[in-house]
Amino acid sequence: MKKIVFWVCVLALNACGGGGGEQPDVAPVTSPTYTVSITSEDGGSVDTSGGEYQNGTILEMAATPDDGFMFTQWSDGNRENPRALTVNADVSLSARFLSALHLNLRFHAMQDDAWIHGSGNAMPSWISEADIVETLMPEINDIWQQAGIHWHIETIIQESIETYDGYQDDIRYIVDSQRDSEGKSDPERLPRLYNLMQPDNRSSEEELDDNLFHIYVFPFIGNTSQGNAMSSFGWHSVVGSWSNKHNDGGIPEKTLLIEAQQNFVRGSLARTIAHELGHVLSLGHDCEQCLMHAEGYDINDTHIQSAREEGARRSYQDPMSIDILSLGDSYTIGESVCDTCRFPEQLKSSLGAEYSEQSEVTLEVIAKTGWTTTNLKNAIASEDPSDDFDLVTLLIGVNNQYQGKPFSVYEAEFVELVTSAISFVGGDKSKLIIVSIPDYAYTPFGQSGNRQKISAEIDMYNSFAEDYANENNLSYVYITDITREGLEDPSLVASDGLHPSELAYRRFVERLMPIALEKSSR
Questions:
Q1: 428 and 283: one domain?
Q2: Model-level pTM?
Q3: Alpha helices by DSSP H, 214-300
Q4: What is the predicted pLDDT for the residue at 181?
Q5: 302 in a domain, yes or no?
Protein backbone atom coordinates (compact mmCIF):
# COMPACT_ATOMS: atom_id res chain seq x y z
CA MET A 1 0.00 0.00 0.00
CA LYS A 2 2.85 2.40 0.91
CA LYS A 3 4.54 1.62 -2.40
CA ILE A 4 1.51 2.64 -4.37
CA VAL A 5 1.24 5.94 -2.56
CA PHE A 6 4.92 6.69 -3.29
CA TRP A 7 4.56 6.28 -7.02
CA VAL A 8 1.43 8.41 -7.13
CA CYS A 9 3.34 11.24 -5.48
CA VAL A 10 6.22 10.94 -7.93
CA LEU A 11 3.88 11.06 -10.89
CA ALA A 12 2.11 14.03 -9.43
CA LEU A 13 5.33 15.92 -8.93
CA ASN A 14 6.48 15.22 -12.48
CA ALA A 15 3.16 16.29 -13.89
CA CYS A 16 3.26 19.57 -11.97
CA GLY A 17 6.81 20.40 -12.97
CA GLY A 18 7.72 20.33 -9.32
CA GLY A 19 11.28 19.39 -10.19
CA GLY A 20 12.14 23.02 -11.11
CA GLY A 21 12.17 22.53 -14.94
CA GLU A 22 12.02 25.48 -17.42
CA GLN A 23 8.69 27.29 -17.92
CA PRO A 24 7.22 27.36 -21.47
CA ASP A 25 7.51 30.68 -23.44
CA VAL A 26 4.42 32.94 -23.27
CA ALA A 27 3.70 35.27 -26.24
CA PRO A 28 3.46 38.92 -25.06
CA VAL A 29 0.07 40.67 -25.52
CA THR A 30 0.53 43.61 -27.90
CA SER A 31 -1.79 46.60 -28.25
CA PRO A 32 -3.19 47.05 -31.77
CA THR A 33 -1.97 50.01 -33.83
CA TYR A 34 -4.05 52.26 -36.03
CA THR A 35 -3.34 54.64 -38.88
CA VAL A 36 -4.29 58.28 -38.43
CA SER A 37 -4.20 60.73 -41.36
CA ILE A 38 -4.52 64.47 -40.64
CA THR A 39 -4.75 66.91 -43.55
CA SER A 40 -5.95 70.46 -44.18
CA GLU A 41 -8.12 72.00 -46.86
CA ASP A 42 -7.55 75.37 -48.53
CA GLY A 43 -7.20 78.25 -46.10
CA GLY A 44 -4.99 76.83 -43.36
CA SER A 45 -2.67 74.14 -42.08
CA VAL A 46 -2.37 71.49 -39.37
CA ASP A 47 0.52 70.83 -37.01
CA THR A 48 0.63 67.06 -37.57
CA SER A 49 0.03 64.71 -40.49
CA GLY A 50 -0.70 61.74 -38.21
CA GLY A 51 0.97 58.35 -38.41
CA GLU A 52 0.81 54.94 -36.72
CA TYR A 53 -0.37 54.93 -33.10
CA GLN A 54 -1.14 52.32 -30.49
CA ASN A 55 -4.69 51.88 -29.30
CA GLY A 56 -5.58 54.44 -26.64
CA THR A 57 -2.98 57.01 -27.66
CA ILE A 58 -4.14 60.59 -27.17
CA LEU A 59 -3.08 62.59 -30.21
CA GLU A 60 -2.93 66.37 -29.82
CA MET A 61 -3.59 68.30 -33.02
CA ALA A 62 -4.26 71.91 -33.95
CA ALA A 63 -5.45 73.71 -37.08
CA THR A 64 -4.11 77.17 -37.97
CA PRO A 65 -6.03 79.35 -40.45
CA ASP A 66 -4.27 81.54 -42.99
CA ASP A 67 -4.76 85.29 -42.85
CA GLY A 68 -8.35 86.13 -43.68
CA PHE A 69 -9.62 82.61 -42.96
CA MET A 70 -11.37 80.87 -40.07
CA PHE A 71 -11.08 77.30 -38.93
CA THR A 72 -14.64 75.95 -39.14
CA GLN A 73 -14.53 72.30 -38.13
CA TRP A 74 -12.87 68.93 -38.63
CA SER A 75 -14.30 66.71 -41.34
CA ASP A 76 -16.15 64.63 -38.74
CA GLY A 77 -18.06 67.70 -37.55
CA ASN A 78 -16.02 68.30 -34.40
CA ARG A 79 -15.29 72.02 -33.87
CA GLU A 80 -12.71 71.75 -31.06
CA ASN A 81 -9.38 73.36 -31.87
CA PRO A 82 -6.88 72.38 -30.61
CA ARG A 83 -8.25 68.88 -30.27
CA ALA A 84 -7.25 65.77 -28.33
CA LEU A 85 -8.08 62.64 -30.34
CA THR A 86 -8.18 59.26 -28.61
CA VAL A 87 -6.93 56.74 -31.17
CA ASN A 88 -9.03 53.56 -31.19
CA ALA A 89 -9.53 52.96 -34.93
CA ASP A 90 -8.11 53.95 -38.31
CA VAL A 91 -9.17 57.53 -38.95
CA SER A 92 -8.75 60.19 -41.62
CA LEU A 93 -9.52 63.78 -40.65
CA SER A 94 -9.26 67.05 -42.50
CA ALA A 95 -9.31 70.57 -41.09
CA ARG A 96 -11.78 72.80 -42.88
CA PHE A 97 -11.47 76.55 -43.34
CA LEU A 98 -13.58 79.32 -44.85
CA SER A 99 -12.72 82.93 -45.54
CA ALA A 100 -13.78 84.84 -42.45
CA LEU A 101 -16.88 87.01 -42.58
CA HIS A 102 -17.02 89.60 -39.80
CA LEU A 103 -20.52 90.83 -38.98
CA ASN A 104 -21.54 93.51 -36.47
CA LEU A 105 -24.17 92.84 -33.82
CA ARG A 106 -25.86 95.51 -31.73
CA PHE A 107 -27.46 94.36 -28.48
CA HIS A 108 -30.40 96.20 -26.97
CA ALA A 109 -30.82 95.02 -23.37
CA MET A 110 -34.35 96.25 -22.71
CA GLN A 111 -34.94 97.55 -19.17
CA ASP A 112 -38.22 97.87 -17.30
CA ASP A 113 -39.85 97.21 -13.98
CA ALA A 114 -40.76 93.61 -13.36
CA TRP A 115 -44.02 92.64 -15.02
CA ILE A 116 -46.39 90.10 -13.56
CA HIS A 117 -47.46 87.33 -15.88
CA GLY A 118 -51.02 86.02 -15.75
CA SER A 119 -49.64 83.10 -13.76
CA GLY A 120 -48.60 85.52 -11.04
CA ASN A 121 -44.88 85.12 -11.77
CA ALA A 122 -42.70 88.22 -12.02
CA MET A 123 -40.66 88.74 -15.21
CA PRO A 124 -37.85 91.21 -14.39
CA SER A 125 -34.96 92.46 -16.50
CA TRP A 126 -31.85 90.42 -15.77
CA ILE A 127 -29.47 90.38 -18.77
CA SER A 128 -26.27 92.24 -17.97
CA GLU A 129 -23.47 93.45 -20.23
CA ALA A 130 -21.21 90.80 -18.70
CA ASP A 131 -23.77 88.11 -19.58
CA ILE A 132 -23.67 89.25 -23.20
CA VAL A 133 -19.89 89.61 -23.51
CA GLU A 134 -18.72 86.67 -21.44
CA THR A 135 -21.43 84.07 -21.96
CA LEU A 136 -23.73 84.77 -24.88
CA MET A 137 -21.22 85.89 -27.50
CA PRO A 138 -18.77 82.95 -27.14
CA GLU A 139 -21.68 80.54 -27.54
CA ILE A 140 -23.14 82.39 -30.53
CA ASN A 141 -19.75 82.48 -32.24
CA ASP A 142 -19.15 78.80 -31.48
CA ILE A 143 -22.39 77.99 -33.31
CA TRP A 144 -21.64 80.22 -36.32
CA GLN A 145 -17.98 79.16 -36.51
CA GLN A 146 -19.00 76.27 -38.78
CA ALA A 147 -20.12 78.82 -41.39
CA GLY A 148 -16.95 80.90 -41.15
CA ILE A 149 -18.92 83.79 -39.62
CA HIS A 150 -17.71 85.73 -36.59
CA TRP A 151 -19.98 88.20 -34.81
CA HIS A 152 -18.55 91.34 -33.24
CA ILE A 153 -20.38 93.42 -30.67
CA GLU A 154 -20.87 96.82 -32.25
CA THR A 155 -22.39 98.21 -29.05
CA ILE A 156 -24.55 97.21 -26.11
CA ILE A 157 -27.36 99.60 -25.23
CA GLN A 158 -29.10 99.36 -21.87
CA GLU A 159 -32.34 100.62 -23.37
CA SER A 160 -35.42 101.65 -21.42
CA ILE A 161 -38.81 100.59 -22.67
CA GLU A 162 -40.37 103.38 -24.73
CA THR A 163 -43.31 104.83 -22.83
CA TYR A 164 -46.40 106.23 -24.54
CA ASP A 165 -50.13 106.25 -23.97
CA GLY A 166 -51.21 102.63 -23.74
CA TYR A 167 -47.70 101.14 -23.60
CA GLN A 168 -48.55 99.20 -20.45
CA ASP A 169 -51.50 97.64 -22.22
CA ASP A 170 -49.16 96.60 -25.04
CA ILE A 171 -46.77 94.95 -22.59
CA ARG A 172 -49.65 93.14 -20.89
CA TYR A 173 -50.85 91.92 -24.28
CA ILE A 174 -47.35 90.68 -25.19
CA VAL A 175 -46.78 88.98 -21.83
CA ASP A 176 -50.12 87.13 -21.91
CA SER A 177 -50.29 86.38 -25.66
CA GLN A 178 -51.02 82.81 -26.68
CA ARG A 179 -50.34 80.47 -29.58
CA ASP A 180 -53.31 79.48 -31.70
CA SER A 181 -54.66 75.94 -32.10
CA GLU A 182 -52.09 75.24 -34.84
CA GLY A 183 -49.21 76.36 -32.64
CA LYS A 184 -48.60 79.66 -34.46
CA SER A 185 -47.59 82.73 -32.49
CA ASP A 186 -49.75 85.81 -32.39
CA PRO A 187 -48.50 88.21 -35.10
CA GLU A 188 -50.05 91.17 -33.26
CA ARG A 189 -47.21 90.98 -30.73
CA LEU A 190 -44.61 92.21 -33.20
CA PRO A 191 -45.82 95.76 -33.90
CA ARG A 192 -46.35 96.22 -30.16
CA LEU A 193 -42.78 95.05 -29.47
CA TYR A 194 -41.50 97.39 -32.16
CA ASN A 195 -43.32 100.30 -30.55
CA LEU A 196 -41.52 99.59 -27.28
CA MET A 197 -38.09 100.10 -28.90
CA GLN A 198 -36.52 103.53 -28.57
CA PRO A 199 -36.84 105.18 -32.02
CA ASP A 200 -33.42 106.86 -31.76
CA ASN A 201 -31.73 103.46 -31.34
CA ARG A 202 -33.28 101.83 -34.40
CA SER A 203 -31.25 101.67 -37.59
CA SER A 204 -31.72 104.27 -40.25
CA GLU A 205 -32.86 103.36 -43.75
CA GLU A 206 -29.22 103.43 -44.86
CA GLU A 207 -28.11 101.07 -42.08
CA LEU A 208 -30.87 98.49 -42.50
CA ASP A 209 -29.10 96.79 -45.41
CA ASP A 210 -25.57 97.36 -44.13
CA ASN A 211 -23.28 95.36 -41.87
CA LEU A 212 -25.31 95.91 -38.71
CA PHE A 213 -27.61 93.37 -37.08
CA HIS A 214 -29.94 94.04 -34.14
CA ILE A 215 -31.00 91.85 -31.22
CA TYR A 216 -33.41 93.17 -28.61
CA VAL A 217 -33.43 91.14 -25.39
CA PHE A 218 -36.77 91.75 -23.70
CA PRO A 219 -37.53 90.73 -20.12
CA PHE A 220 -40.74 89.29 -21.52
CA ILE A 221 -41.85 87.78 -24.81
CA GLY A 222 -44.97 85.99 -23.72
CA ASN A 223 -46.47 82.57 -24.26
CA THR A 224 -45.94 82.51 -28.01
CA SER A 225 -42.23 82.07 -28.64
CA GLN A 226 -38.79 82.98 -27.44
CA GLY A 227 -37.72 84.98 -30.50
CA ASN A 228 -38.69 86.53 -33.82
CA ALA A 229 -36.64 87.86 -36.72
CA MET A 230 -38.80 90.87 -37.51
CA SER A 231 -38.48 91.14 -41.27
CA SER A 232 -41.35 93.63 -41.46
CA PHE A 233 -39.53 95.93 -39.05
CA GLY A 234 -36.08 96.14 -40.59
CA TRP A 235 -34.89 92.90 -39.03
CA HIS A 236 -34.82 94.47 -35.56
CA SER A 237 -35.03 90.98 -34.11
CA VAL A 238 -36.34 90.20 -30.63
CA VAL A 239 -35.63 87.46 -28.10
CA GLY A 240 -37.07 86.95 -24.66
CA SER A 241 -35.18 86.18 -21.49
CA TRP A 242 -38.41 84.84 -19.97
CA SER A 243 -40.67 82.38 -21.76
CA ASN A 244 -43.04 79.52 -21.10
CA LYS A 245 -42.84 78.10 -24.60
CA HIS A 246 -40.89 75.12 -23.32
CA ASN A 247 -43.14 74.17 -20.41
CA ASP A 248 -46.47 74.02 -22.26
CA GLY A 249 -47.74 77.38 -21.10
CA GLY A 250 -46.92 76.99 -17.45
CA ILE A 251 -45.23 79.51 -15.20
CA PRO A 252 -42.73 81.49 -17.32
CA GLU A 253 -39.14 80.60 -16.61
CA LYS A 254 -35.83 82.34 -16.94
CA THR A 255 -34.31 80.41 -19.83
CA LEU A 256 -30.69 79.56 -19.25
CA LEU A 257 -28.04 81.48 -21.16
CA ILE A 258 -26.53 78.26 -22.48
CA GLU A 259 -27.39 74.60 -22.28
CA ALA A 260 -25.40 71.50 -23.23
CA GLN A 261 -25.39 71.10 -26.99
CA GLN A 262 -24.91 67.36 -26.64
CA ASN A 263 -28.16 67.02 -24.67
CA PHE A 264 -30.53 69.32 -26.48
CA VAL A 265 -33.83 69.79 -24.70
CA ARG A 266 -34.81 73.35 -25.44
CA GLY A 267 -33.29 76.39 -27.07
CA SER A 268 -30.94 78.38 -24.89
CA LEU A 269 -30.95 82.15 -25.18
CA ALA A 270 -27.65 82.00 -27.08
CA ARG A 271 -29.05 79.44 -29.50
CA THR A 272 -32.24 81.46 -29.97
CA ILE A 273 -30.21 84.54 -30.87
CA ALA A 274 -28.09 82.47 -33.28
CA HIS A 275 -31.31 81.08 -34.81
CA GLU A 276 -32.87 84.53 -35.34
CA LEU A 277 -29.63 85.81 -36.88
CA GLY A 278 -29.90 82.88 -39.28
CA HIS A 279 -33.26 84.20 -40.46
CA VAL A 280 -31.75 87.65 -41.02
CA LEU A 281 -29.09 85.90 -43.14
CA SER A 282 -31.87 84.54 -45.40
CA LEU A 283 -32.30 81.08 -43.82
CA GLY A 284 -35.63 79.31 -43.35
CA HIS A 285 -36.74 76.29 -41.34
CA ASP A 286 -36.11 73.81 -44.16
CA CYS A 287 -33.77 71.44 -42.37
CA GLU A 288 -33.94 68.70 -39.75
CA GLN A 289 -32.11 68.57 -36.42
CA CYS A 290 -30.32 71.84 -37.14
CA LEU A 291 -29.99 75.38 -35.85
CA MET A 292 -32.88 76.54 -38.03
CA HIS A 293 -35.22 73.73 -36.97
CA ALA A 294 -36.93 73.05 -33.68
CA GLU A 295 -33.76 71.68 -32.19
CA GLY A 296 -30.09 71.18 -32.97
CA TYR A 297 -27.00 73.33 -33.45
CA ASP A 298 -25.62 72.24 -36.84
CA ILE A 299 -25.80 74.34 -40.02
CA ASN A 300 -25.97 72.33 -43.24
CA ASP A 301 -23.91 73.09 -46.34
CA THR A 302 -26.81 74.69 -48.23
CA HIS A 303 -27.56 77.01 -45.33
CA ILE A 304 -23.87 77.83 -44.89
CA GLN A 305 -23.60 78.93 -48.52
CA SER A 306 -26.79 81.01 -48.36
CA ALA A 307 -25.86 82.66 -45.07
CA ARG A 308 -22.37 83.47 -46.33
CA GLU A 309 -23.68 84.99 -49.54
CA GLU A 310 -26.03 87.25 -47.61
CA GLY A 311 -23.35 88.00 -45.02
CA ALA A 312 -20.87 88.93 -47.73
CA ARG A 313 -23.43 91.16 -49.39
CA ARG A 314 -24.11 92.91 -46.09
CA SER A 315 -20.41 93.13 -45.19
CA TYR A 316 -19.24 95.01 -48.25
CA GLN A 317 -21.69 97.82 -48.84
CA ASP A 318 -19.02 100.50 -48.99
CA PRO A 319 -18.09 101.54 -52.53
CA MET A 320 -15.40 99.26 -53.85
CA SER A 321 -13.72 98.34 -57.11
CA ILE A 322 -13.38 94.73 -58.21
CA ASP A 323 -11.07 94.22 -61.18
CA ILE A 324 -11.26 90.88 -63.00
CA LEU A 325 -8.75 89.48 -65.52
CA SER A 326 -9.78 86.50 -67.65
CA LEU A 327 -7.14 84.56 -69.57
CA GLY A 328 -7.84 81.94 -72.22
CA ASP A 329 -9.01 81.13 -75.70
CA SER A 330 -12.34 80.94 -77.59
CA TYR A 331 -14.12 79.64 -74.49
CA THR A 332 -13.13 82.82 -72.67
CA ILE A 333 -13.70 85.26 -75.52
CA GLY A 334 -17.13 83.68 -76.09
CA GLU A 335 -17.00 82.64 -79.75
CA SER A 336 -20.45 82.79 -81.42
CA VAL A 337 -22.27 84.35 -78.44
CA CYS A 338 -22.98 88.01 -77.71
CA ASP A 339 -20.38 90.17 -76.02
CA THR A 340 -22.20 90.09 -72.68
CA CYS A 341 -23.02 86.36 -72.94
CA ARG A 342 -19.52 84.92 -72.43
CA PHE A 343 -18.80 83.62 -68.97
CA PRO A 344 -16.38 86.41 -67.85
CA GLU A 345 -19.02 89.05 -68.63
CA GLN A 346 -21.72 87.06 -66.86
CA LEU A 347 -19.39 86.64 -63.87
CA LYS A 348 -18.78 90.39 -63.86
CA SER A 349 -22.54 91.10 -63.88
CA SER A 350 -23.26 88.55 -61.15
CA LEU A 351 -20.56 89.98 -58.88
CA GLY A 352 -21.83 93.50 -59.52
CA ALA A 353 -25.30 92.45 -58.42
CA GLU A 354 -23.92 91.24 -55.07
CA TYR A 355 -22.45 94.59 -54.07
CA SER A 356 -23.79 98.10 -53.62
CA GLU A 357 -24.74 100.18 -56.61
CA GLN A 358 -21.74 102.41 -55.93
CA SER A 359 -19.31 99.51 -56.39
CA GLU A 360 -17.60 99.06 -59.73
CA VAL A 361 -16.70 95.72 -61.30
CA THR A 362 -14.32 95.88 -64.26
CA LEU A 363 -13.20 93.14 -66.65
CA GLU A 364 -10.13 92.75 -68.84
CA VAL A 365 -9.90 89.78 -71.19
CA ILE A 366 -6.77 88.39 -72.83
CA ALA A 367 -8.04 85.62 -75.07
CA LYS A 368 -8.55 84.75 -78.71
CA THR A 369 -10.09 81.92 -80.69
CA GLY A 370 -7.51 79.27 -81.59
CA TRP A 371 -4.96 80.20 -78.94
CA THR A 372 -2.78 77.51 -77.42
CA THR A 373 -0.84 77.91 -74.19
CA THR A 374 2.06 79.25 -76.29
CA ASN A 375 -0.13 81.90 -77.91
CA LEU A 376 -1.52 83.00 -74.54
CA LYS A 377 1.99 83.21 -73.08
CA ASN A 378 3.14 85.45 -75.92
CA ALA A 379 0.06 87.67 -75.66
CA ILE A 380 0.59 88.14 -71.94
CA ALA A 381 4.21 89.10 -72.51
CA SER A 382 3.07 91.61 -75.12
CA GLU A 383 0.21 93.18 -73.13
CA ASP A 384 2.00 93.12 -69.76
CA PRO A 385 -1.06 93.29 -67.43
CA SER A 386 -0.84 95.09 -64.09
CA ASP A 387 -0.37 93.25 -60.81
CA ASP A 388 -3.35 94.69 -58.91
CA PHE A 389 -6.29 92.63 -60.15
CA ASP A 390 -8.71 91.30 -57.53
CA LEU A 391 -9.58 88.10 -59.38
CA VAL A 392 -8.15 86.17 -62.32
CA THR A 393 -9.59 83.20 -64.24
CA LEU A 394 -7.58 80.82 -66.42
CA LEU A 395 -9.13 78.48 -68.99
CA ILE A 396 -6.67 77.18 -71.59
CA GLY A 397 -5.55 74.01 -73.37
CA VAL A 398 -8.24 72.89 -75.80
CA ASN A 399 -6.27 74.08 -78.83
CA ASN A 400 -3.16 72.26 -77.65
CA GLN A 401 -5.28 69.12 -77.78
CA TYR A 402 -7.08 69.99 -81.04
CA GLN A 403 -3.86 70.90 -82.86
CA GLY A 404 -2.07 67.78 -81.63
CA LYS A 405 0.64 69.63 -79.73
CA PRO A 406 2.87 67.48 -77.49
CA PHE A 407 1.28 67.13 -74.07
CA SER A 408 4.62 68.03 -72.51
CA VAL A 409 4.24 71.54 -73.97
CA TYR A 410 0.97 71.98 -72.08
CA GLU A 411 2.46 70.59 -68.86
CA ALA A 412 5.29 73.11 -68.89
CA GLU A 413 3.42 76.15 -70.20
CA PHE A 414 0.33 75.66 -68.04
CA VAL A 415 2.53 75.96 -64.94
CA GLU A 416 4.14 79.10 -66.38
CA LEU A 417 0.70 80.58 -67.07
CA VAL A 418 -0.45 79.84 -63.54
CA THR A 419 2.63 81.59 -62.17
CA SER A 420 1.92 84.62 -64.38
CA ALA A 421 -1.74 84.66 -63.38
CA ILE A 422 -0.83 84.71 -59.69
CA SER A 423 1.50 87.65 -60.27
CA PHE A 424 -1.44 89.63 -61.70
CA VAL A 425 -3.23 89.46 -58.32
CA GLY A 426 -0.20 90.66 -56.43
CA GLY A 427 1.06 87.15 -55.69
CA ASP A 428 -2.12 86.13 -53.83
CA LYS A 429 -2.79 82.67 -55.26
CA SER A 430 -6.10 82.48 -53.42
CA LYS A 431 -7.51 84.92 -56.00
CA LEU A 432 -6.88 82.64 -58.99
CA ILE A 433 -9.61 80.36 -60.34
CA ILE A 434 -8.61 77.64 -62.81
CA VAL A 435 -11.51 76.48 -64.99
CA SER A 436 -11.59 73.03 -66.60
CA ILE A 437 -11.62 72.61 -70.40
CA PRO A 438 -15.02 72.01 -72.04
CA ASP A 439 -15.46 68.84 -74.11
CA TYR A 440 -16.30 69.67 -77.74
CA ALA A 441 -16.81 65.96 -78.52
CA TYR A 442 -20.39 66.51 -77.33
CA THR A 443 -21.20 69.08 -80.03
CA PRO A 444 -22.36 68.67 -83.64
CA PHE A 445 -18.85 69.69 -84.73
CA GLY A 446 -17.31 67.04 -82.54
CA GLN A 447 -19.36 64.31 -84.18
CA SER A 448 -17.06 64.43 -87.19
CA GLY A 449 -14.05 63.36 -85.10
CA ASN A 450 -13.11 60.49 -82.83
CA ARG A 451 -15.30 61.32 -79.84
CA GLN A 452 -13.75 58.80 -77.49
CA LYS A 453 -10.25 60.02 -78.28
CA ILE A 454 -11.23 63.67 -77.87
CA SER A 455 -12.87 63.07 -74.49
CA ALA A 456 -10.00 60.92 -73.23
CA GLU A 457 -7.45 63.60 -74.12
CA ILE A 458 -9.60 66.39 -72.61
CA ASP A 459 -9.74 64.32 -69.43
CA MET A 460 -5.95 63.99 -69.48
CA TYR A 461 -5.51 67.76 -69.75
CA ASN A 462 -8.08 68.44 -67.03
CA SER A 463 -6.60 65.84 -64.69
CA PHE A 464 -3.19 67.45 -64.96
CA ALA A 465 -4.62 70.91 -64.22
CA GLU A 466 -6.74 69.67 -61.31
CA ASP A 467 -3.87 67.72 -59.76
CA TYR A 468 -1.60 70.73 -60.06
CA ALA A 469 -4.26 72.92 -58.47
CA ASN A 470 -4.75 70.53 -55.57
CA GLU A 471 -1.04 70.14 -54.96
CA ASN A 472 -0.60 73.91 -54.83
CA ASN A 473 -3.80 74.86 -52.96
CA LEU A 474 -5.34 76.60 -55.96
CA SER A 475 -9.04 76.85 -56.73
CA TYR A 476 -10.23 74.61 -59.56
CA VAL A 477 -13.79 74.68 -60.95
CA TYR A 478 -14.94 71.72 -63.02
CA ILE A 479 -17.46 72.62 -65.76
CA THR A 480 -16.68 69.90 -68.34
CA ASP A 481 -19.69 67.82 -67.34
CA ILE A 482 -22.00 70.67 -68.31
CA THR A 483 -20.65 70.66 -71.86
CA ARG A 484 -21.08 66.88 -72.03
CA GLU A 485 -24.82 67.44 -72.03
CA GLY A 486 -24.56 69.24 -75.37
CA LEU A 487 -25.90 66.45 -77.56
CA GLU A 488 -28.86 65.76 -75.28
CA ASP A 489 -29.56 69.46 -74.77
CA PRO A 490 -28.73 71.50 -77.93
CA SER A 491 -29.51 74.74 -76.06
CA LEU A 492 -26.10 74.36 -74.37
CA VAL A 493 -24.30 74.70 -77.74
CA ALA A 494 -23.83 78.01 -79.60
CA SER A 495 -25.11 78.57 -83.12
CA ASP A 496 -21.77 77.52 -84.64
CA GLY A 497 -22.32 73.97 -83.36
CA LEU A 498 -19.03 73.98 -81.47
CA HIS A 499 -18.81 76.45 -78.59
CA PRO A 500 -20.86 76.79 -75.39
CA SER A 501 -24.02 78.88 -75.54
CA GLU A 502 -25.08 81.73 -73.27
CA LEU A 503 -27.04 79.19 -71.19
CA ALA A 504 -24.00 76.94 -70.79
CA TYR A 505 -21.90 79.91 -69.71
CA ARG A 506 -24.60 80.86 -67.20
CA ARG A 507 -24.26 77.41 -65.66
CA PHE A 508 -20.47 77.88 -65.58
CA VAL A 509 -20.97 81.07 -63.59
CA GLU A 510 -23.31 79.37 -61.10
CA ARG A 511 -20.34 77.21 -60.11
CA LEU A 512 -17.84 80.04 -60.23
CA MET A 513 -19.84 82.57 -58.21
CA PRO A 514 -19.52 81.16 -54.66
CA ILE A 515 -15.75 81.00 -55.01
CA ALA A 516 -15.46 84.30 -56.89
CA LEU A 517 -17.59 86.06 -54.27
CA GLU A 518 -15.33 84.93 -51.44
CA LYS A 519 -12.12 85.75 -53.28
CA SER A 520 -13.15 89.16 -54.58
CA SER A 521 -14.47 90.30 -51.18
CA ARG A 522 -11.25 89.72 -49.24
A1: no
A2: 0.57
A3: 269-280
A4: 76
A5: yes
